[in-house]
Specification:
With about 450 residues, the chain is an alpha/beta fold. Helix content is about 50%, strand content about 15%. The chain contains 17 helices and 14 strands. The protein has a 7-stranded mixed sheet with strand order 9-8-7-6-10-11-12, sandwiched between helices. α12 links the parallel β10 and β11. The two termini are about 20 Å apart. The structure holds NADPH dihydro-nicotinamide-adenine-dinucleotide phosphate. NADPH dihydro-nicotinamide-adenine-dinucleotide phosphate binds next to α9.
Length: about 450
């Protein structure tokens, strides 16, 4: 492709799809960013000369490997794992590991690409990466999860390091898995180093990391509302998911006086018109974080509705926070949200809203907080965990929380600086994409053709 073709989005996307066939999630993520930054590239000769878009959409490297482990019955099991090291222009690679039966290279490339801009937005020195495996943790014993994690780290440890690549958790990878992964890294390398984040508090983890993504998403919503002269108190929210992001988003919504009416998992959603109070949230945390049970148990205990196989977007509320997985709000859901007069949609999960749905929401003038800004609090506190590990100190919960609030405020300001109004509301997608892109692109230009 010549630099002239960068003038045309369709032409660029045609080439990208040809080079990366059958990767619809990756195409969707790239399209959203390129659409925002193409006017800037048209104006900036240095970006065109440096073929910046072609370089930014090609991962630095992709590592694929086999993970062989033994189940409780003594059978030898095989999974596939990947680490997509997308871009380390502004710092060591950083991004989570996902364990889910549907994980494939398309998903990890979309997540690694997004991560590059999200990490840039935080203002911390972190490049973008993502990894994971098609290992399905559901129904596996602790022993099986441990043996899988140890086997995975046996290969992964060759490719990570505190100045090279620092993975964290994501779907299916929480405190338990990170403990097993870190234990195996330490055993094989005889080094106690900050090579993973999200670690347990007794072995180098940061206060506030577990809560950071969910709390950060609500802080971002709070910033948006303050900018609009509004607030959270007395309002209602619908949340999807009941994992790490969802649980702590609900916790912060409660703290700021906003009632959460729903939560979900892959089996359906619960609708609690009285709200998921702090007491009920403790039950939900125990159910999902400790017992790893199903969401209908919440409805059984508190006598509210459970909707099997459904998503919560038909419930009327002021705010919608999708916090489960990608593409969980489609065009039909978006139309329902619009007809229910939702005020804002804030992406706690990565790319939970399809491109069609985003368009419908934006055209209706609904405030939209995109994932790379709204859920950046998790990786931001991971960055703070890296700093604490490097300094061999531990900040208090309050210190970390103050920094997190400052970072989310900073991200909101950066979005405002680079955005414009569309349909009477701030275009946070454009603001986040341009702010995230500029820092990475400028570093790449400075390096010359590498
Ligand atoms: P968890 O594994 O803790 O929770 C995921 C939740 O989503 C569970 O309730 C799960 O239900 C549900 N879920 C997963 N897949 C599906 C599906 N296909 N359909 C419906 N529900 C589904 O993950 P996290 O909370 O950590 O991550 C959630 C999202 O947030 C992801 O998009 C992740 O990339 C993103 N994110 C996470 C960060 C973090 O710090 N953890 C940081 C930034 C983004 P079930 O239990 O039934 O599978």
């Amino acid at each position: 492709m010549t630099s002239k073709s960068f003038y045309d989005l369709d032409c660029f996307m045609h080439g990208l799809k040809r080079r990366n066939p059958a990767e619809p999630n990756f195409h969707q993520a790239v399209h959203e960013v390129v659409e925002s930054v193409i006017p800037l590239i048209r104006e900036t000769q240095a970006y065109r000369d440096a073929s910046i878009l072609e370089r930014l959409t090609e991962p630095d490297r992709i590592i694929t490997f086999r993970v062989t482990w033994m189940d409780d019955a003594g059978n030898t099991r095989v999974n596939r794992a990947w680490r997509v090291q997308f871009n380390n222009s502004i710092g060591p690679y950083k991004g989570g590991l996902r364990f889910h039966k549907d994980v494939d290279l398309d998903t990890l490339k979309f997540l690694g690409f997004e991560q590059t801009f999200k990490n840039s937005l935080t203002g911390l020195p972190m490049g973008g990466a993502k990894g994971g495996s098609n290992f399905n943790p559901k129904g596996k014993s602790d022993g099986e999860v441990m043996r899988f994690c140890h086997a995975m780290m046996t290969e992964l440890q060759r490719h990570i390091g505190e100045d090279t690549d620092v993975p964290a958790g994501d779907i299916g990878v929480g405190g338990r898995e990170l403990g097993y992964l870190f234990g195996q890294y330490k055993r094989l390398n005889n080094r106690f180093a900050g090579v993973l984040t999200g670690k347990g508090l007794s072995f180098g983890g940061s206060a506030g990391r577990k809560e950071a993504t969910g709390h950060g998403a609500v802080y971002f919503l709070k910033e948006i509302l303050e900018h609009q002269g509004e607030g959270l108190s007395g309002k209602t929210a619908i949340v999807s998911g009941s994992g790490n992001v969802a649980l702590y988003a609900i916790e912060k919504l409660n703290e700021l006086g906003c009632k959460t009416l729903t939560a979900s998992d892959s089996s359906g959603f619960i609708f609690d018109p009285d709200g998921i109070t702090d007491e009920k949230l403790e039950f939900l945390k125990e159910l999902k974080e400790v017992r790893r049970g199903r969401i209908h148990e919440y409805a059984d205990k508190f006598g509210c509705e459970f909707h099997a196989g459904k998503r919560p977007w038909s419930v009327k509320a002021d705010f919608a926070l999708p916090c489960a997985t990608q593409n969980e709000i489609d065009a039909e859901d978006a139309r329902e949200l619009v007809s229910n007069n939702v005020h804002a949609v804030i992406e706690g999960a990565n790319m939970p809203t399809t491109a069609d749905a985003v368009l419908i929401l934006q055209q209706a003038g609904i405030t939209f907080g995109p994932a790379k800004a709204a859920n950046a609090g998790g990786v931001a506190v991971s960055g703070l965990e890296q700093s604490q590990n490097a300094l061999r100190i531990a900040w208090t919960h309050e210190e970390v929380d103050n920094r997190l609030q400052g970072i989310m405020r900073g991200i909101h300001q950066k979005c405002l600086r680079h955005s414009e109004e569309v349909h009477g509301t701030v275009d946070y997608i454009k603001g986040a994409n341009i702010a995230g892109f500029t820092k990475v692109a400028d570093a790449m230009v400075a390096y010359g053709a590498v």
